[in-house]
Amino acid sequence: MRYSKELVIGLTTVATIICFTWGYNFLKGKNVFKAKRDYYAFYDHVHGLEVGQPVTISGYKIGQVTEITFDASYGGSLLVGFHISKPLDISSDTKVKIYDMDIMGAKGLQLEPGTSSELAVSGDTLQGDIQISLTEQVTKQFVPIKDGTERLINVLDSTLRSITLLTQKASDLIEVNHNSISSAAVHIDTLSQTLSAQREDFEIILNNFRTFSSDLAESDVSSAISQIDETMNSLDIVLTDINSGQGSLGKLIKDGKLYTDMSASMSQLERLLEDLREHPKRYIHFSLFGRKESAVPSDTLN
Q1: Which residues, at least 6 apart from 39, have a Cβ–Cβ distance to it below 8 Å?
Q2: Do 76 and 70 touch, CB atoms closer than 8 A?
Q3: Can you give the pLDDT of all 302 residues of the chain as single tens digits?
Q4: Residue 33: closest CA among 21, 44, 41
Q5: The domain 35-131 is classified under which CATH number: 3.40.1350, 3.90.700, 2.40.128, 2.40.30?
């Protein structure tokens, strides 16, 4: 039995189309000969998730992402569709998380089973979620370090500027006072030479001081202090007697009558000396013939 050429070409074309369709879907992760269930989840941002990425649960691949579309009816969210090819029942409150599959940042979907007894059916929309990636975790940990490093750099920069300014001012001050500094250095050198020349004298002074210290240490300092203490006690007793009016000095200081009598006696003595100076003949009798002078008037001494 011979087939016509047109029939052979038609059958070949159909087989080619079928093989191409199956291969295309297979490369995209779709197996047209295997039963599957489709689910959906909404995200504000898919963080680089692409069609064909695997869907896993506890690290086990159970399906893959089939489509990512922009849905304006949900406020501009992204609708991610995926299918599950494994015979696995999931609850209606299962979360679908976008996560990092490796350190390079490739994204995938991970199912986190819920606790509801109600099972999700094909075509249901599940709750979308995003797991913090390793890169984001490192970034969050690095941000405080980065801020602290920037503040430290600013402080170091300010410190270096202050040191530079201080160095510049010191250089200017040294340049302005160069002559004075040179003169001071000369004086210091002269003083050093003088001290070096008088070294023997200083050694003699130090030896004398050392000898004096040794003599002072060997002397009976306690006895001398005791004698000084006794002398001070005796002086304190004398002063106490004087303040209390005892003794001649105490009576002289404290007794007003004695002071008055002494003052009167001094006044009479002064008048006597004045009269002696003015009338010496009243007191000195010198005569060859024994002539008597009149006596000194008694009212002169009063």
Answers
A1: 81, 82, 83, 84, 96, 120, 122, 123, 124, 125, 126
A2: yes
A3: 566 777 778 788 888 888 877 776 666 655 555 567 899 999 988 888 999 899 999 889 999 899 999 887 766 789 999 989 888 888 999 999 999 888 787 899 999 998 988 999 988 999 999 887 666 667 777 778 888 888 899 999 999 999 999 998 888 888 888 788 888 888 888 888 887 877 788 888 888 888 888 777 776 667 778 888 888 888 888 788 777 767 666 666 666 677 777 788 888 888 888 888 887 777 665 554 455 554 555 555 55
A4: 21
A5: 2.40.30
Q: Which two tokens stand for residue 138?
A: 């490192």
Structural domain boundaries in the chain: 1-33, 35-131, 134-174, 177-219
In this structure, what token pair is assigned to residue 72? 């304006």
pTM of the model: 0.40
